[in-house]
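Give me C-alpha cells for this 150-residue protein.
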Amino acid sequence: METGYKRFDQELYDKYDAEGKEAAKRWFAAHTDYEVRELEGEGHKFAQDFALFYNGEFHGYLEVEVKATWDTDRFPFSSVNVPYRKMKFILPGIRTLFFLVNRNFTRAAMIDSADVYHAQEQRIPNKFSERDEVFKQVDLRAVQFLKLDV
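Here you go.
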C-alpha cells in the first residue's frame, strides 16, 4: 500500500521515547506477571521495543509509542489510529501489544496486534508527513485503557 510516512523526528524521540518506555515497563512490572526485556543487537534497531516473557518463555512483543496529541486523562478521540507502517510488527502466530502513552505519562491505551490487524484502514492528513498517511483505526471497544503509576 502506497502511503505517506511520518519522517523520523529526533526531537520528538528525545522528548518522549525513554519516559514512555519506562512508563510501560513500570506498568507491566506492577500489574502483570510478564518480564519485559530489552531487544538487543543491531538487528532490533527498527523492531518492537521489548520482548515479553512469562515464566522464562517468550510470549510476544511490546511496542511503545507516546501519542503527543493525547494530553488528557480521558482519551479524546473516537478511535485509536495506529500508523500502517507499524504493520511490520504484526507477525503470524506472534503477539505484539501496542502500548500508547499520553504525553503526560498518566494514561495508556493497550491494543492487541490482532485488533490492529483487523481494524479499518483510513488515509488521514498528517502534519508530520508531506502526503496523507494510512492508519489502522482501532475501535475503542478493542482498547484497554490504563492508569499509569506516575
